[in-house]
Amino acid sequence: MKHARVACYGAIHEAVEADGTLQLMDGRIIDPQDVVWLPPIEAGTIFALGLNYADHASEISFKAPEEPLVFLKGPNTLIGHCGQTRRPADVKTMHYECELAVVIGKKTRSVKRKDAYDYISGYTIANDYAIRDYLENYYRPNLAVKNRDTLTPIGPWFVDKEDVQDPMNLKLYTYVNGELKQEGTTRDMVFDIPFLIEYLSSFMTLNENDVILTGTPKGTVNVVEGDEVVVEIEGIGRLKNTIVADKVFAR
Amino acid sequence: MNEGERIAYLEKIGVTALMMYHAKARFSSTTGLEDIWVGASHIQWKGEKFAEDSFSWQSPIIGTVYGTLFNFREQLEAFRTEFDKAPYQKPPQRPILYIKPRNTLNAHLKEVAIPNGIEAVEVNATLGIVIGKTAVKVKEQDAFHYVQGYTIVNDVSVPHQTFYRPAIKQKARDGFCPIGPWVVLKDEIPNPDNLMIWTFKNDELIQVNSTKELVRSIPRLIQDVSEFMTLASGDVLLVGVPYNPSLASPGDTIRIEIDHIGSLENRFVHDNVLIAGGERV
């Protein structure tokens, strides 16, 4: 089943996808165009992977790492489907990153690869934007590149694990203003999902609703004010958002 | 500074046995933050006096904990010759931050587990700025309006010599962020940019630091961080980590004292010891 968190009728609701419409938990049916989409889960710790597709690593002049390159994100950076992402006026390079997001279903420590899927509740899509102008070589990618407000759209759906047959064999696509710009498959991850769960849980506890953004394939290009960016993953959904300029913000 | 000089110093800044500080704390037995008054020899809660160790202290913080690198002058200066070399290439421009995720949160008088295979861990004694209301692009001169108070943080880390990649494996271990015992409300602190931070190992004073030595002062740090990310009520911003932090091994007790706030104490144990609360960390 596909689950969402939306704001409508004066409250925040959980909803499920029902034949192209949304059905709220209280039974009401609503057109998806009439809701405000929120991140589909209330995320705990947000892990993200850098350079986890070999083709993207070479695209930005790195060889794929020997150990996962993990960084963390704060809750300030998340926004829902159909939201706005801010592009500061003076920057040259801001790119999207279409990523499969894995949601942890129960608390765990020291999981083995073969058992890793037992600790997953489901999947969603994240667009892990980066503003490369702010890169510094300290704890890189540093928070000024990756953790700015609005830089991580997530959703629209949280899809139950049972509904995704093989998460390691899903096509990923990014469209900018309707034009296909990025295409890949989760098969090409350097470190696959079971490996990442074994790795992280080998030194720290994973909790329910922690999220792992598993990295992006080749095909990241600059986006500018007014661009409509859609990141899509086969069987998970299409996550849309719009790039807006500083002038939308009064400060 | 030795112990005698330290006591003379505390008397000079007006820390005496009669003072009571208004603070917020979280206990195992309660939900949410409780108002307490902290005296030199006891804690007052709901009008009654208690000994400090009669409470089961929880982290007073449940928001996001952001740490700051290179914000004590001594640490910045010590690395200055490295900044122009690979892999760094140039000195840091914006505040270099990191996150201590929720599995790291720990509390006063609780144990910190040292992972198997690691002999000793760094104890980074620092001040935590507790955010009181949503701070977005705050100006330096307004920054204190967004502060609720201050707390003590021990940013425990596996020692690491390079700062090139995020230090998740070094900083995000379970229980590696003792915080507390409480949050002292900001009006109780005369000048947060002039507080001494004292670290004791097994009751011996081993490190002295001061928030007077910050590269970015507290209001400046809030300005430069909230310029690119929103700090929410309940989040904590650590002012920096000291140069050459002390190490703790299994069996050591580390106590961090900060003027006008209190002291945060934790015993370090082997990974295979069950900590209070029955959870293996």
TrEMBL record, chain A:
It comes from the Bacteria. The keyword Transmembrane does not apply. GO terms for molecular function: hydrolase activity. InterPro entries: Fumarylacetoacetase-like_C, Fumarylacetoacetase_C_sf, HPA_isomer/decarb_C. Keywords: Hydrolase, Metal-binding. Residues 45-244 form the Fumarylacetoacetase-like C-terminal domain. This is Fumarylacetoacetate hydrolase family protein. It comes from Ornithinibacillus xuwenensis.
